[in-house]
Automatic annotation (TrEMBL):
<feature type="transmembrane region" description="Helical">
    <location>
        <begin position="32"/>
        <end position="53"/>
    </location>
</feature>
<feature type="transmembrane region" description="Helical">
    <location>
        <begin position="7"/>
        <end position="26"/>
    </location>
</feature>
<keyword id="KW-1133">Transmembrane helix</keyword>
<feature type="transmembrane region" description="Helical">
    <location>
        <begin position="89"/>
        <end position="109"/>
    </location>
</feature>
<keyword id="KW-0812">Transmembrane</keyword>
<protein>
    <recommendedName>
        <fullName>Holin</fullName>
    </recommendedName>
</protein>
<feature type="transmembrane region" description="Helical">
    <location>
        <begin position="65"/>
        <end position="83"/>
    </location>
</feature>
<keyword id="KW-0472">Membrane</keyword>
Length: 118
């Protein structure tokens, strides 16, 4: 298995943990070590990816769309469970929807471009 795929698999639980911390644990005393553990894990993943990742590899459009849908689904779930983002990340934030729209448009554009070149 290529390192890029392993990094994507490891990134998903780290991102999920960061969102859980933001929505539910940021006000809990003693939970700061969780935040730092996740941030250090994310930083290590980035550094290792720089050294072990393939040069010129890109995120697949399907992965980009799937990750975007996953993040929005988590935000919806955490909101329904009564969580509130300490950083202001919410479904009512227009900046979130601009980023989601741009991400999806970019993924669709890259997918169509890849189809034409293959």
């Amino acid at each position: 298995m290529k390192w890029d795929k392993v990094a994507e698999i490891i990134f998903t639980p780290i991102l999920t943990g960061m969102l859980i911390y933001d929505y539910f644990l940021s006000s809990v005393d003693g939970a700061i070590w969780i935040k730092w553990g996740l941030l250090i894990g994310w930083g290590l993943l980035i550094v290792i990816s720089i050294f072990l990742g393939e040069k010129g590899s890109q995120i697949l459009p399907l992965w980009e769309i799937g990750l975007t849908i996953y993040i929005v689904s988590l935000l919806l779930l955490f909101t329904l469970l009564g969580g509130e983002s300490a950083s202001g990340l919410s479904l009512s934030n227009p900046v979130l929807w601009v980023v989601v729209s741009l991400t999806l448009m970019n993924a669709i554009w890259k997918g169509r471009k890849n189809k034409r070149h293959s």
